[in-house]
């Protein structure tokens, strides 16, 4: 699934999963999700409003990873598309969508 980064200010960057993706790919009421960021695997809490009106994932480790990898470039403006690839129960690998071919990410997910 393709999601986008979301920034709420410096040091507060996460993922906006989108309502449709939240309902389709995440078990309702799930307290956390595991994300694989390169060789690092983290567990991120999901707020109760995740399934209702705020399908967002925010975690300090996710923020640091996103900002160090992709958001420090002077050419980066606005949200970045990211793929969440299922890798087990309640677990996903993160991959940034190639800038030259955003449709390719949908095929690899």
Oligomer status: single chain
* Helical amount: 10-25%
Shape: globular
What is the typical, i.e. mean, pLDDT? 84
Task: Please tally the helical runs, counting DSSP H or I stretches of 4 or more residues.
Answer: 3
Q: Helix-strand pattern, N to C?
A: EEHEEEHEEH
Main β-sheet description: 7 strands, mixed
Query: C-alpha Rg, in Å?
Result: 13 Å
Protein structure class: alpha+beta
Tags for this model:
single chain; 109 residues; alpha+beta; seven-stranded mixed beta sheet; 3 helices; 7 strands; 35% strand; globular; disordered C terminus
List the helices and strands and how they pair.
Layout (H helix, E strand, L loop, with lengths): L1 E6 L5 E4 L2 H7 L6 E6 L2 E6 L10 E2 L2 H10 L11 E8 L2 E6 L5 H7 L1
Parallel strand pairs: 3-7
Antiparallel strand pairs: 1-2, 1-6, 2-5, 3-4, 6-7
What report would you give on this structure?
The protein has 109 residues and is an alpha+beta fold. 22% of the residues lie in helices and 35% in strands. The protein contains three helices and seven strands, in the order ββαβββαββα. It has helices at residues 19-25, 60-69, 102-108; strands at residues 2-7, 13-16, 32-37, 40-45, 56-57, 81-88, 91-96. A seven-stranded mixed beta sheet has the order 4-3-7-6-1-2-5, sandwiched between helices.
């Amino acid at each position: 699934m393709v999601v986008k980064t979301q920034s709420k200010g410096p040091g507060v960057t996460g993922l906006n999963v989108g309502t449709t993706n939240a309902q389709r790919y995440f078990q309702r009421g799930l307290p956390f999700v595991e994300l694989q960021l390169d060789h690092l695997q983290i567990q991120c809490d999901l707020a109760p409003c995740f399934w209702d009106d705020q399908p967002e994932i925010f975690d300090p480790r996710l923020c640091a990873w996103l900002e160090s990898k992709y958001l420090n470039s002077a050419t980066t403006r606005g949200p970045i598309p990211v793929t969440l690839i299922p890798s087990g129960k309640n677990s996903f690998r993160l991959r940034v969508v190639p800038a030259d071919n955003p449709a390719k990410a949908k095929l690899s997910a």
